[in-house]
Amino acid sequence: MSQVRFMEAWSGGETGQGPEGAVSLFSRVYGQEPAGVWSAPGRVNLIGEHTDYNAGLCLPIALPHRTFVALKPRQDHRVRLVSSMAPDDQVRVDLDGLQARGVTGWASYPVGVAWALRQAGYDQVGGFDMALASCVPVGSGLSSSAAMTCSTALALDDLFGLGLGGSDQGRVTLIDAAVRAENDMAGASTGGMDQSASMRCQAGKALRLDCRPELSAMENVTQVPFDLEARGLELLVVDTQAQHQLNDGQYEQRRTTCDEAARILGVGNLRQVADEVKVSEDSATALQEVLERLPDEVTRHRVRHVITEIGRVDRFIEAFGRGDVQEAGRLFNASHDSLRDDYQVTSPELDLAVDVARAEGAYGARMTGGGFGGSIIALVDAGKGRGMAQTIADRFHAAGFHEPRALAALPSSSARREC
C-alpha cells in the first residue's frame, strides 16, 4: 500500500505552476505574451448541501487551490483555448452564431462564459486566446468547474472593460454568467453557490450565503470568521476519486422533485417551509405535518433533508463561533447521514471515508459537494489529518476502491487578477 498523496496548492515560481505556468503555456502555444493572468479558487462547502437551489443557506469557503487563466483579446470573434491537462490539444470556437450546447468538453465552460455575457448584452466581449493551468482537483466535488468559469469571467471583465469585477454587485453579474455557462452551455445543473464562493469568499472567513431570490447582492452574503488554527483544528478534505458528475441527470431529478414539492405545498421554494418550521413552537411536529402533505415517500425524504439541512447551517455557525467543536461535529455527522439516507446522493466510497474518519477521532465528517462521488470533509484536531487520510487510503485499498487523495482546506481569497 502506497502513502496517500496530499495535493498541495501551487505557490508559484515553479515550472508549469501558478501564473507562471499559465503564461508559459500561453507563450509556447500562441507565440506571444498574454495580456494578463487571472485566477479563481475551488471551494469546499462546510454545510448546507443541496440547499442553494431551494433558496436556502450554505456555508462555503474558498480553497487555496486555484485555476489560472492567461488571456489575450483578439480582433475577431474567434476563441482559441488550451489547457495544461492536454497542452497539445487546442480548441477553436467562433462566438458568432454560437448557440447553447454549441461547445462540448472542458472548453464549454470558459467559452460558455463569453457566450453568456454576450447574451446578457455585453456585446463588447469578443474573441480571445486562452491558456489554462489548474491545481483544483477535477471531478472531486471541489468545484473545479466554477474555478474555471469564474477566472474566465473576471478575465473577460478586465479584457473588455465591463467594469463589473470591482464590486460585489458587479461580481454578481459575473456569477450569473458563470452559472449560465455551466447550466446552458456545459449542461451541468448548478445552483450558484459554487460560483458565489469562488467570486466572493474572503481569506479566513466562511461565506454564509442566503439564496432567497428576493435578497440583493448586498443582503445575501455574510462573512463569518472561520479560524481553524485558533480552535486547534484542521479541516481534512479527502477526494475519494469516485468520479463526480453533475450532468448525468441525478442532480436534476432531485432539483425537479424539490420544485414540485414546493408547488404542492403552495410556496415559491422550500426555504419558506424551512422558515415556518423553524419558528414553530414544536418544530419536529411542524415538519412531520409538512411531510404528510406530500404524495410519496421519496418526495418526503428529499424535502426532509432540505428543511433540516437549512436549519443546520446557522446552528453550525453558532456552535463553531462559541467554540463548541463537539456540537459542530455532530452537525457535520447529521448532514452526511441526511444526505445518505434522505437525499441519497452519497456513494460507497463517500460513506466508507466518512465512517473511517469518525472511527479515527474526527469530531464530524460529511460528504461535500453535489455527491455521487467526490470528496468528504472531516473536522479534526490539528496535526491529525495526514494520519487519518492514510487510514482511509488503507481501507480503500482493502475495499478495492480507487486510491484517494487528500488536502488541507484553509479559507482563502476569491477570484483575482494575478498579473
Largest sheet: 6 strands, mixed
Average predicted local confidence, pLDDT: 95
Number of domains: 2
Structural category is alpha+beta
Strand coverage percent: 15-25%
The CATH architecture designation of the largest domain is 2-Layer Sandwich
Series of H and E elements: EHEEEEEHEHHHEEEHHHHHHEEHEE
Annotated CATH topology of the largest domain: Ribosomal Protein S5, domain 2
Broad shape: globular
Taking all Cα atoms into account, the compactness measure Rg is 21 Å
Helix content: 40-55%
In CATH, what is the class of the largest domain?
Answer: Alpha Beta
Number of strands: 14
Spatially, the strands of the biggest sheet line up as: 6-5-7-4-2-14
Question: Helical region count?
Answer: 12
How far the N terminus sits from the C terminus, by CA atoms, comes to 42 Å
Low-confidence stretches: none
GO molecular function: ATP binding; galactokinase activity; metal ion binding
Enzyme class: transferase
Domain Galactokinase N-terminal: 25-73
Protein name: Galactokinase
Structure summarized in a few sentences:
With 419 residues, this protein is of the alpha+beta class. The chain is 41% helix and 21% strand.
Task: Describe the protein in words.
- By secondary structure, this protein is α+β, with helices and mostly antiparallel strands.
- It has two domains: 5-226 and 412-417, Ribosomal Protein S5, domain 2 (2-Layer Sandwich); 229-409, GHMP kinase, C-terminal domain (Alpha-Beta Plaits), CATH 3.30.70.
- It has twelve helices and 14 strands.
- The protein has helices at residues 18-30, 108-119, 144-159, 168-185, 193-200, 250-265, 270-279, 283-292, 297-321, 325-341, 348-359, 385-399, and strands spanning 5-6, 36-45, 57-58, 60-73, 78-83, 86-94, 128-134, 205-210, 221-225, 233-239, 364-368, 375-381, 405-409, 416-417.
- The strands form three sheets. It has a six-stranded mixed sheet, sandwiched between helices. Strands 1-13-10-12-11 form a five-stranded mixed sheet. The protein has a three-stranded antiparallel sheet with strand order 3-8-9, with helices on both faces.
- Strand 5 and strand 6 form a beta hairpin.
- Helix 4 packs antiparallel against helix 5 (193-200) and helix 9 (297-321) runs antiparallel to helix 10 (325-341).
- The longest helix has 25 residues, at 297-321.
- It is globular and about 65 Å long.
- The protein starts with a strand and ends with a strand.
- The model has no long low-confidence stretch (mean pLDDT 95).
